[in-house]
């Protein structure tokens, strides 16, 4: 629903974040279309003021060819699959199928404001930090990968992302970050490179049952790989590993 004339322009998720943290959005300069306050703006307010808006950072070296590196962790997706099963009937009634790929993507994009370099791009002599997050999402199907693009994905809830994916654009040129889900296929590991003008892409492998040693003994758990391919001119292994570890912790902890 559009905001009425004279009312604060803010996305529903930005308003929810503001209510949860007691924030006042009226004085926030929104980064969205028409000055709309986005979820990333509300999260930035929680983090506190910074010394000027970081739009660009000096580049470390000059190069016209993207040097791609990868980092991978294994993740127990049992909690995620359980939540998908619990939400599935309600989502199905709305005509919104909920996949593991969409669930991981919603969690992944929610973490990006704290890891801004993954949503950046290389610009020859500078690293450009983007304020908006446009998600290119690919999911494995009978005919191979099906791509879709969702603008301002960071301002969507899980249900909102599922709805957006159902009617997403195929114009991928504006994408700032990618998620490639192989969860519907047989490939347990893959590392597609980042899309042009982006710095990172997250690939989700198909879950495989594996024996895991825990505090109470050995259990068979569904493990999936989470792999980030990244532009090594923009990111280093430490930054990517920190993002992957936080993503794994969020997915394994389940909904909070």
Describe the overall structure.
This protein is α+β, with helices and mostly antiparallel strands and 256 residues long. It folds into 2 domains: 12-53, E3-binding domain (Dihydrolipoamide Transferase); 58-253, Chloramphenicol acetyltransferase-like domain (Chloramphenicol Acetyltransferase, 2-Layer Sandwich). It is built from 6 helices and 10 strands; from the N terminus they run H-H-E-E-H-H-E-E-E-E-H-E-E-E-E-H. The chain has helices at residues 12-21, 39-47, 78-93, 100-111, 158-166, 237-253; strands at residues 56-58, 68-76, 120-122, 126-129, 135-141, 144-150, 177-181, 200-204, 208-214, 217-231. Strands 2, 5, 6, 7, 8, 9 and 10 form a 7-stranded mixed sheet that branches. A hairpin with a 3-residue loop joins strand 3 (120-122) and strand 4. The radius of gyration is 19 Å and the shape is globular. It starts with 11 loop residues before the first helix and ends with a helix.
